Amino acid sequence: MIGIHWDISWHRSIGRDTFWTPAHLVIHLCGVLAGISCGYLILSTTFRRNSPLRDCAVRMWGFRGPLGAFLSAWGGVAMLTSAPFDNWWHNAYGLDVKILSPPHMVLAAGIFAVHAGALLLILGQMNRAEGVQRARLQWLFLYVGGMILVCLSVLQMEITSRSSMHSAHFYRLVAMVAPPVMAGVARASKFKWAATAIAGVYTLFVLLMSWILPLFPAQPKLGPVYHHLTQFTPPEFPVLFVVPALALDLLWQRTGNWSIWRRAVVSGAVFVLALAAVQWPFASFLMTPAARNWFFGTHYFGYYVPATSLYARYQFFPPEPVFWQEAAAALATAIVTTALGLAWGNWMQKIRR
Questions:
Q1: Which of 234-243 are b and which e, b meaning 16 or more Cβ less than 10 Å from the residue's Cβ?
Q2: Which pTM does this prediction carry?
Q3: Sign of the CA dihedral running 18, 228, 238, 143
Q4: For position 49, what pLDDT does the model report?
Q5: Where are the alpha helices (DSSP H) in the chain?
Q6: What letter would DSSP give residue 239?
Q7: Percentage of the residues of the chain whose pLDDT score is greater than 70
Q8: 60 DSSP β-pair partners
Q9: What's the pLDDT tens digit per position in 87-106?
Q10: Apex CA 265: angle with CA 182 and CA 179, to 5°?
């Protein structure tokens, strides 16, 4: 995910000058490492009769290995496949870059598969371990869960900017990604502060990217240039997921005997209300001069952002004519995705290989 944020910042600050940028190479190197390491794990488990993983491996296409290794290996292949696809796409349709493009979706699917495979690899070992070893694996499991939240949040980066944070549609979008990750990973880990830990990993990672990237020089190579830049443009300040995550952890500690749908209904409402309670006023603060500094980073803009845009003028998009319908949809989305996350977590508790 460091390579992904670096690449997005590269496009916002310099433009897409060549495929062979350091950021691109870092991203696809991760795909190579995932493919090689998990491929070796599968081949060694298949052909070594004394492999310690043979008793806890699954069979697939005549090969044997941990379930997570197969998933991560596929993810590495998908990431590498996206590289020539992305290069062809820009040669055919121009150099403008959108996160939600077909080659980027292939890359995103590969990255998510690598993360999910790593999660399952850790989980299989964690569910067989006890004591100190389980505790260490549990923290590693929560870290990967936090990076999955980072991965999914990147996909929404273009449509969840601070200018959209006073719209109900914003809460509907974030309800699609945060509740299932928090609920699923928390349920599988059995750690009472799991959601808070996941949100903490997400928050710390995005903050570090926001603070480190502007330390390096950059200059636009494409036009038109609406903002003169001399440094990399970082991502926006992270969404305050840590507050609803803490509320969910407190709720789940007291509702362990509830059914999935009962917990999902209450949890979905808690997530949306807690997030709105903190994000709405915080978004107002982000529009003020007090947030235009290195810590909050609202004075950074991509070179291509017109000075007349609402985003550059620190204004919110007009509220939707159907605000309350969108708010109800955000609540329904949070309920459904939380239920899916809880069911996913119940399934993950059974994984041993």
A1: bbbbbbbbbb
A2: 0.90
A3: positive
A4: 74
A5: 2-13, 22-47, 67-93, 102-126, 131-155, 168-174, 178-189, 194-212, 242-252, 260-286, 323-348
A6: P
A7: 93
A8: 63
A9: 777 776 665 556 667 777 88
A10: 20
